[in-house]
Design goal:
324 residues; two-stranded antiparallel sheet; two-stranded antiparallel ribbon; globular; ABC_transp_permease
C-alpha cells in the first residue's frame, strides 16, 4: 500500500515580496518617502541634513524605546513627555540651587525618571489602576512639580549635561545616545528573561501569571524602564539647549507612541521590537524635516502626522486580521 505526500505549494515571487512588504511596512514607507523627498528637493540627502535628521530623531527615539516595553505589555505611558522636563529640571535645580556636582546631578535626574515611572507601575500593578489613568496622573504631577521647582523659568544645566548635546568628533552625542538606547532596548527584548516575559504578559497576562511569571513585579520594572528612558531623553534635550525648560516635552508622549505603533508594535500587546521603533521614529523625523524644507506650515505638519498614525494603526489591524 503506497501513500503520497503532497508537495508544498510554491509561493510566487510577487507573493513573497508582498508578504515582506506587509511585515516591513514602515521601512518601505521610509524608503519611498526618502526617494520622493530627494526628487522634490535634492538638499534633502545632503550630509548636513542627514545629520540634522539624526539629531531630530534622537530624543523621540530614546523616548520611544522606553515606550516599546510598555506597549508590548499592552500598556500605555502618557507621563513620558512630562518626565522629560521633570528629570532635566531636577538635575538642573540640584546643580544650580543645591550646589551638587554636575555628574551626580545627572545621575539624580535619571533616578527621578526611574522613581516616577516605578510609582506609575506600582499603581497599575498593585492598586489595579488603568495604565491610562495612572500615567495621566503622573503626567500632571510631574509637570506640576517641574513648574514648582523652576518657578516657570529655565535653569542652566551643568557641563556634564551640556556634553550630551555636543559632538564627539564629527558625530553628535545625541545620535550616540540614541544608538546606545537602541542597543539596550534590543538586548533587553531579545536576549533576557525580562524581554520574553514582556511578550508573554502582552499576549495573555493571565496565562503568564499561571505560568509562574511575576507579572506585577515585571510591570513595575517596565514602567520604571520607561521613566529612565524618558529621563535620558530629557537630559539629551537639555544638553542641546544648555538649560532645563519647564515646558519641554509637551506632547512628546504622542510622538513616542506613534513611533512605536508605526514601527509595527500592536497596541493590543505582545508585539514590538527595537528596530521597528527606531524606523518609526526616523520616519516621523523625516516627515517633519521634509515638510520644513518644502516650507509646509507647521499646522499642516500636524495634520500629516495624524494621518500617518491613523494609517499605521489601520495597517496593524489589517495585519492582525490577516494572521488570524
Amino acid at each position: 500500500m503506497s501513500s503520497t505526500v503532497a508537495a508544498p505549494a510554491k509561493v510566487s515571487p510577487a507573493r513573497r515580496v508582498g508578504h515582506w512588504a506587509l511585515n516591513h511596512g514602515a521601512l518601505v514607507g521610509l524608503i519611498v518617502l526618502c526617494v520622493a523627498l530627494f526628487i522634490a528637493t535634492p538638499a534633502f540627502l545632503t550630509v548636513s541634513n542627514v545629520i540634522n535628521i539624526g539629531i531630530q530623531t534622537a530624543v523621540v527615539a530614546i523616548l520611544a524605546f522606553g515606550m516599546t516595553f510598555v506597549i508590548i505589555t499592552a500598556g500605555i505611558d502618557l507621563s513620558v513627555g512630562s518626565l522629560v522636563a521633570f528629570s532635566a529640571m531636577t538635575c538642573a535645580w540640584m546643580f544650580s540651587n543645591a550646589g551638587l556636582p554636575g555628574p551626580l546631578t545627572l545621575v539624580i535626574g535619571l533616578l527621578a525618571g526611574l522613581v516616577a515611572g516605578a510609582i506609575s507601575g506600582l499603581g497599575i500593578a498593585y492598586a489595579k489602576l488603568p495604565a491610562f489613568i495612572a500615567t495621566l496622573a503622573m503626567m500632571s504631577i510631574a509637570r506640576g512639580l517641574t513648574l514648582v521647582i523652576s518657578d516657570g523659568t529655565p535653569i542652566a544645566t551643568p557641563e556634564s549635561v551640556n556634553w550630551l548635546g555636543g559632538d564627539i568628533g564629527p558625530i553628535p552625542v545625541p545620535i550616540i545616545m540614541m544608538a546606545l538606547a537602541w542597543l539596550v532596548c534590543w538586548f533587553l527584548l531579545s536576549r533576557t528573561v525580562l524581554g520574553r516575559s514582556l511578550y508573554a504578559i502582552g499576549g495573555n497576562p493571565e496565562a503568564a501569571r499561571l505560568s509562574g511569571l511575576p507579572v506585577k513585579k515585571t510591570l513595575v520594572t517596565v514602567y520604571a524602564l520607561s521613566g529612565v528612558f524618558a529621563a535620558l531623553a530629557g537630559l539629551v534635550l537639555a544638553g542641546r539647549l544648555s538649560s532645563a525648560q519647564p515646558q519641554a516635552g509637551v506632547s512628546y508622549e504622542m510622538d513616542a507612541i506613534a513611533a512605536v505603533v508605526i514601527g509595527g508594535a500592536s497596541l493590543a500587546g505582545g508585539a514590538g521590537k527595537a528596530s521597528g521603533t527606531f524606523i518609526g521614529a526616523v520616519l516621523l523625523a523625516v516627515i517633519r524635516n521634509g515638510l520644513n524644507i518644502l516650507n509646509v506650515s507647521s499646522f499642516w505638519q500636524q495634520v500629516v502626522i495624524g494621518c500617518v498614525i491613523a494609517v499605521a494603526v489601520g495597517f496593524d489591524v489589517f495585519r492582525n486580521h490577516k494572521k488570524s
